[in-house]
């Protein structure tokens, strides 16, 4: 053997020494300890808090938290802005939290919206859960409400979070697909972790392709506590409701828009804030007395379950207004560090095992991703004074005076000193903890299908058809037929009708399982029961040279008066000229614009309509029509789109008289989609 061959053989052996095949092997820790249970963290009783001594959970989460540096492992693609929160009514009877005492007081905040699955460069319109995290800079310290645009989650215990993310991320052998769950490993996880059944229904709904950050709900997901000055505790869940209503794309539109404008969501937020169209959300709470903890047919600590609003109403308590863009995305948005463990006096934790895992993981993650002193960065620093004996560490900003850096002490008169709870110090609510130390899922967590069925029952016909299409697409991308079969079998527990349709579409057997017996529905879960408003919606206005100046200008003024945002589209950039001296500045050319980025289309046309103008106008109209959006046209514009065969169809309005047309078109834009074209 030649020297070159020997060297190459040596390299291969060195590489093979680091290869590990896990297939068919016993599970063990990185220290070689065999693991008997990898699905449950160690708790004090099956519904008790997670114990810090769980060295197996800490090792698993610590390793996971450091797997990708410096980009976030999840929620990497995000965008943030500043705002303020104004309380509507005092919550003194519920909580000691200072920022929830006085109506009218405005608390500064920072919000970060994000996607869960994709990397930092992924398209923003992919189907994905959206992060919805708010940092309140209160006078008593930072309170972080770290949530999503869906009220539940995939898993019940934080120890399984690394497994979930490993499954939904691109498959490690080929790094495919990016920012999508339409692949084998994700659905294999779902099929074998059926606590995710309800979440599957939510992520396959239109909730995961939102029209904008400004038009999606937000949820704290977990069960927290509110504690008042008398020491009385109540359970609470947090809700954000968009003032503009909750609206989404259709799937074909979302896919194409990812190519036309992969930054669509951040551009929408940035431009609207700059234009003074501030994003507004109302904060609501569901409050449950401790005595009612076991009153329901679900466990209130189970993060895969929601609290139906018909049983526990949402009380609206205040409004968030997002009104200021960042100056530097890296310094502010990317270095922002959120943590569900950042709470203030009057807010406390429950024994939710997923929340308990996050309380460890988020601190660990921020220390690894941002650095030891991440809390000193301007975006993360509280507005109230900070004094303690923590010192040094990487990137230390604070210059501490004096020689004493410990507690208790006499050299500094035992300062900084602790503050009694009666004078504002944080005091943990003294909830009772009892039970054997054990790794076990509580029996009350074992019903995985009732709320999935509740969600299905609550959907409109259009929403159900979209869920079916989403599941057909996602599972159609799964190459392993056995995984498809397992998932369809699981869905049979939710709906026989759904499973039967999918079995036919996916080429698998119809499952022989009994569907859930739940018959009730929750109107609050349907996006059909939301607010509809024309405000801030974009109208693509296709204008040709020689257009009817006075009539067009009148209609545009009416649209603007209703809160719509007309975008002038022409063959080329510059100025387009109409009759009687009316001129319009062109915002988009046919090539720089796209019907995908407008919420509706108004075809004005003009006197000089060459073949190029006609071709693109019809193309814009057909794309808009196929996505169920409103289309308006002047008589001249109607002649342009006549060959498309859409005149007279629902949501297609032709001008007869400008005032009447403007009123009808504004109504159509308010409706937003015309599903009866289907």
TrEMBL record:
Taxonomic lineage of the native organism: Bacteria, Bacillati, Bacillota, Bacilli, Bacillales
What reaction gets catalysed by this protein? 2 H2O2 = O2 + 2 H2O
Q: Does the keyword Metal-binding apply?
A: yes
Q: Where is the composition biased (Basic and acidic residues)?
A: 1-11
Reported cofactor(s)? heme
Q: What is this protein called?
A: Catalase
- Extract the ranges annotated as region (Disordered): 1-45
Task: State what this protein does.
Answer: Decomposes hydrogen peroxide into water and oxygen; serves to protect cells from the toxic effects of hydrogen peroxide.
A Pfam family found in this protein is Catalase
**InterPro entries registered for this protein in UniProt:** Catalase, Catalase_AS, Catalase_clade2, Catalase_clade2_helical, Catalase_core, Catalase_haem_BS, Catalase_immune_responsive, Catalase_large_C
Q: Which family does it belong to?
A: Belongs to the catalase family. HPII subfamily.
Q: What class of enzyme is it?
A: oxidoreductase
